[in-house]
Amino acid sequence: MTTLSARDTATRLEGELARAPRKLLIEGKFVAAQSGRTFATINPATGEELAQVAHGAAADIDLAVAAARRALDNPAWRDMSANDRSLLLYRLADLIERDAQELAVLECLDNGKPATQTRLVEIEGSIKTFRYFAGWPTKFGGETLPVSPRGGLRILNYTTREPVGVAGLIVPWNYPMSMAAWKIAPAVAAGCAVVLKPAEQTPLTALRLGELALEAGFPAGVINVVTGFGDAGAALVAHPGVDKIAFTGSTEVGKAIVRAAAGNLKKVSLELGGKSPQIVLADADIAAAAAAIAAGIFFNQGQTCTAGSRLYAHHSIHDELLEAVAGHAAQLKIGNGLDPETSFGPLVSQEQWDRVSDYVRIGTEEGARVHIGGARPAGFDQGFFFQPTILADATRDMRVVREEIFGPVLGALSWSDPEDLVAQANDSVFGLSAGIWTKDIKSAHRIAAAVKAGTVWINCFNLLDPSTPFGGFKQSGWGREHGRQAMELYSETKSVWVNLS
C-alpha cells in the first residue's frame, strides 16, 4: 500500500463521509435513528471529526431485534440449506477481499492504527474468519446415540443442533472489523440472526460490513447494525427478544452484562480483560524474545486484550533483555497510519490517552521508573499519540502491574525463584494469555501447565487462528471463540427419542 494510494483512498472516503450521516442498518435498509440524533466519530490521528453517525438507542434496538426475529421466521433464511449458508459466507469473504484497501483505510481513519497493519491483520484476518466458518454449516450437526431405555424398548435417539435465535453482538474499538467477523461468522453459520452493536469510537467498518453482507445476498434482517453508545448496548443486553449476547470488552462491563442478561436467562459469552505475563527464563533466545515482547505490547499501541504487559525476566538476563526491548521500541515509526512507513499510530481517543497517561503517573508515584517513553512524542501536538513506554523496577503490588492499562505500557519485573515466578504470573484476576520463553522444553511445558491462562504461547506470542479456541480463565471471560466451540456458542442441542418397538 503506497502513500499515494492510501491517501487517495482516504481523501475519497473523507469526502463521502462528510456528505451525509451514516445510518443504521435494520432489516436490509439504512435508516436514521428514531430520535433523529447523530454523533461524531473522530479521527485519532488528527483529533478532528471524521463523520456523523446515527445515534441509535433503545427504540432502534427494538426495531433491530424485531427485524432479526422476522428473519428467523423467514423461509428464505430459516429453510436455507447448509450449503447455501456456506456460499453466502464465502461471498462475503470475497467482497471483503475485493474492498480490502478501502476497508483498511477506513479502519485507519476511524481507529488510528496503521493502514498497512490493518490490511494484514484485521482485513486479512476477517477474510480468513469468514472463509473458515463458511465450512461449518455443512459439517455442524448432531449424532445418533446408543441409549439403553427401560422395558426393552427399541429406541432411536438422535440429537440436532439448532440456532440459538437472535444474537446480540457487542464489539470493542481496538479491532473493530475483526471482532465483528469473529462474532458474525459463527452466528450466521449456525443459522442465527444478529444485531451488531459496534463501539461508538469506531462504527464505520461495521456499517460497511453490513452493506457488504446485503450485497453478498444475506436476507434482510439476518445482519442488523445499530450504532450508538452504552445505552444502546444495555438495551440490547436486557432485551427479552434476544436469546444470546456475545461481548468483547472490559471485565467491568462484562459483569454488568451478566447481571442484565438474567431477565430472560439469555446465554452469554464474554471475552474480557487481560494482563498477560511474558515469562523469560535465563536460557531464552534474548533477541527473539525481545522482538516478540516489543511487538506483544506495542502492536496496535498496546490496545490489545492479549497485550504482554507484564514482563517477568530472570535476574541474570533482565537488564540485557530490557535494553533489547527498548531498542525495538526506539525503531518504531510514530505517525499517521496513512503513511506506509508508520508502525505506531495514535491511541483511539482522548479518553484513552488520559487513561494511559494517568497510569504512567500512578506507576511512578508507586515507585516504578520510566525506562523509556511515558509522554506525548515530540512534534505530535494533534491527535492522541503516546510514546511506547517501559516502566522498570515494577513490583507485583503496583496498580500498573495488577490493572489493565490497555495502552503501550510494559511493566518490567525481575525474578530468581521458579516457584515464586509461577505464583507471580498467576497473581492476577485475569487469565487470558501468557508467553513463555526458554530453550528447555521441559520447563516450558511445566510452566505452561501451571499458568492459569486460556492461551499459552511458547517461544512465540499473539498467534491466532479461527480453527483454535480463544478465550480466558478467571475474570477474562466465559466461553471460547473460534473453532467448533464458537459454533456451539450460537446453537442449542435437541435430543429426539423415537420408539421403534
Give the CATH class of the largest domain: Alpha Beta
Looking at CATH, the homologous superfamily of the largest domain is Aldehyde Dehydrogenase, Chain A, domain 1
| Helix fraction by DSSP (H/I, runs of at least 4) | 40-55%
Strand line-up of the largest beta sheet: 14-15-16-13-12-18-19
Could you explain how this protein is built, in words?
The N and C termini lie far apart (68 Å). Helix 5 (100-111) crosses helix 6 (115-134). With 501 residues, the chain is of the alpha/beta class. Strand 3 (38-43) and strand 4 (48-54) form a beta hairpin. It has helices at 3-19, 58-73, 75-78, 82-98, 100-111, 115-134, 176-189, 204-216, 230-238, 251-260, 286-298, 318-330, 350-366, 399-402, 418-426, 441-450, 483-489, and strands spanning 24-26, 29-31, 38-43, 48-54, 144-145, 155-163, 166-170, 193-197, 223-225, 244-248, 267-271, 277-280, 310-314, 369-372, 389-392, 409-415, 430-431, 433-437, 455-458, 473-474, 477-478, 491-499. It has 17 helices and 22 strands. The mean pLDDT is 97. The radius of gyration is 24 Å and the shape is globular. The strands form six sheets. It has a seven-stranded mixed β-sheet with strand order 14-15-16-13-12-18-19, with helices on both faces. A six-stranded mixed β-sheet has the order 9-8-7-10-11-21, with helices on both faces. A three-stranded antiparallel β-sheet has the order 5-6-22. The chain is 41% helix and 20% strand. The protein has two domains: 3-12 and 23-41 and 50-272 and 476-495, Aldehyde Dehydrogenase, Chain A, domain 1 (3-Layer(aba) Sandwich); 277-465, Aldehyde Dehydrogenase, Chain A, domain 2 (3-Layer(aba) Sandwich).
